[in-house]
Amino acid sequence: MDKAHHVSELSVSGSMLHLVVDGKAYEVDLAKESPRLAQATQEQREQIEVSPSGYGLHWPAVDEDLSVDGLIG
């Protein structure tokens, strides 16, 4: 299976998600992207899983999924 994206770095500072996708750095305000993530604790926001395809991000503690394309597009 081809990967949609290569997510090489992820970190969270407050509500800001810092990620490197396909070699390019992005910053995204998670509070603006998702009501669930806006209400989440810092610890919950930091628990991020990247899908095997590189298409999406998942926060298991708050049961939220966001697409990488939607975040960086």
Q: Rounded to an integer, what's the Rg over CA atoms?
A: 11 Å
Described by strand count, sense and barrel closure, the largest sheet is: 3 strands, antiparallel
**Proportion in β-strands:** 35-45%
Can you tell me the overall shape?
globular
- Mean pLDDT across residues: 94
Number of strands: 6
Secondary structural class: alpha+beta
The tally of helices reads: 4
Helix content: 25-40%
| Strand arrangement across the biggest beta sheet | 1-2-3
Low-pLDDT ranges: none
Describe this structure in words.
The protein is an alpha+beta fold. 26% of the residues lie in helices and 40% in strands. The protein contains four helices and six strands. The strands form two sheets. Strands 1-2-3 form a three-stranded antiparallel β-sheet. The chain has a three-stranded antiparallel β-sheet with strand order 4-5-6. A hairpin with a 2-residue loop joins strand 2 and strand 3. The mean pLDDT is 94.
Summed up:
With 73 residues, this protein is of the alpha+beta class.
Question: What is the secondary structure topology, with strand pairs?
Answer:
Elements: E1 7-13, E2 16-21, E3 24-29, H1 30-33, H2 35-39, H3 42-46, E4 49-50, E5 56-59, E6 64-67, H4 68-72
Antiparallel strand pairs: 1-2, 2-3, 4-5, 5-6
Structural features:
alpha+beta; 73 residues; globular; three-stranded antiparallel sheet
